[in-house]
Specification:
Elements lengths: L35 H11 L2 H8 L6 H8 L4 E3 L33 H10 L5 E5 L2 H9 L4 E4 L13 H12 L4 E5 L5 H9 L4 E3 L2 H33 L12 E3 L9
Parallel strand pairs: 2-3, 3-4, 4-5
Antiparallel strand pairs: 1-6
Length: about 260
Amino acid sequence: MSDAFSFRDYPLASHTVPRTGTAPKVPRRLQHILSLDDFETAARRFLPKPIFAYISGGCETDRTLRHNREAFEAYDWITRVFTDTSRRTRGAPILSSNVLRDFGARDHLSWEHLKLIRDTWPGKLVVKGILHADDARRACELGADGVIVSNHGGRQLDGACASLRALPRVVEAVGQRCTVMVDGGFRRGNDVLIAHALGARAVFVGRPFNYAGAVAGEPGILHAIAIVANEMLRNMALLGVNALSDLTGALCGSLGNPTRQIG
C-alpha cells in the first residue's frame, strides 16, 4: 500500500516558509532518508550494477567528479547574528521551461552555430558547459541570456576544473550582463548557498534525483527536494539571512586559493 502524496506538501523555490509548524508527511519507507547521500546508498542496493555505475560514474579515473566535491571544502561560512530570519525565502524560479540542448555534434559546434541559433530563436537562450571567463564573455556578446558553469558532471574531460572553482571568474566576467548558473557536485542545501554567495543565480542537481527516483519514484524525488529545501532554510537561519540576495562573498570565506586564475 502506498501513501498518498501531493506535490503541494513540499516547499518549492516559489513558496515562502510554512508557518504552521507542521512538517510535510513522508512515506514510512523514506523516513530513514535524511540526505541526498542516503538516496545514493539506497540506489546502490536497489539498482542493477551496470545502471548504477552508469549514473554514478564519470569518465576515465573520475578525477573531475572528485574535484567537484572537493571544491566545496575550500569554503567556510562567516555567520551573522541577531538577525530576524523568520521570513526567509529561497527565492523564485528564474528560467523558462523551454531549453535547447545538443544542437548538432559537439566536435562541429562553433561560435557561428551559437550566432545562428540566436538569430533564429527569439526566446531565452542559455549556454551550458562554460568554464572559462572568455567563453562566458563571448556567449553573452552573441546574445546568450544565461550561461551554466559546468564540466558536464565529470563525464567528458577527466581532470576538468571543478565548476565551483570556475564560478567566481565567470560571475566576475559576465554576472552583470547575463544570468550565471552552475552545476556539478551539488549534494546539500549548504552547497547551493555557497554557489549563491559566489554569484550563481541558480543551481542544478542531477545524480541525486536520479537516485531518489530509482529508489521511490515521484515520492522519492519530492522527498529529495524537501531535504535540500529544508537544509537551505535551516542554514540561512543559522547564517542570519532572509533571502538568497543577502548571501555575498563577504559571508563566504575561502581556504587556500580556490579561485585560482582559470580564465
